[in-house]
Amino acid sequence: MYQQLYEDRLGGIQHTSIHRCADIASCEPADDGVRLELTDPHTGSGRFLDVDLVLLATGFRDLGTDDRGAREFLPGVLNGIRDGVAVPEDGQASVSRDYRLELAAPQSPLIYLNGLCETTHGMGDAGSFSLLALLAREIADSLASRLTPAR
Questions:
Q1: Whole-prediction pTM value?
Q2: Which residues belong to the signal peptide in this entry (predicted)?
């Protein structure tokens, strides 16, 4: 992604944008892509953004719970599916080896977590940029094995 941003800047074009410190208040399909309502968590100000594609980066907080509230069960953007997440006895969100969020319903869509998997995948998952290529490969292989041309 950063290479694309760099190449765009060299070419004087902007295909990609990064919106930091923005909470997604709503996300709706639009005629030409997706319409987002963004809220600044510091000022509370809001704005709408029409885009072709959305990539979400939720930061480096860990999934799970602790006494200080430093962890979260799911990223806030996934609160709408919270009740559909498979929860084993330990009370943590269940994430498979291939970073797929395990959902209770068998026909649920595939949801992968890029980060937030320290609890299930160990300390190396917490922002280790050197492991991002391996993580991306694991997700790509998982998707390729599950998606067929008919799906």
A1: 0.52
A2: none
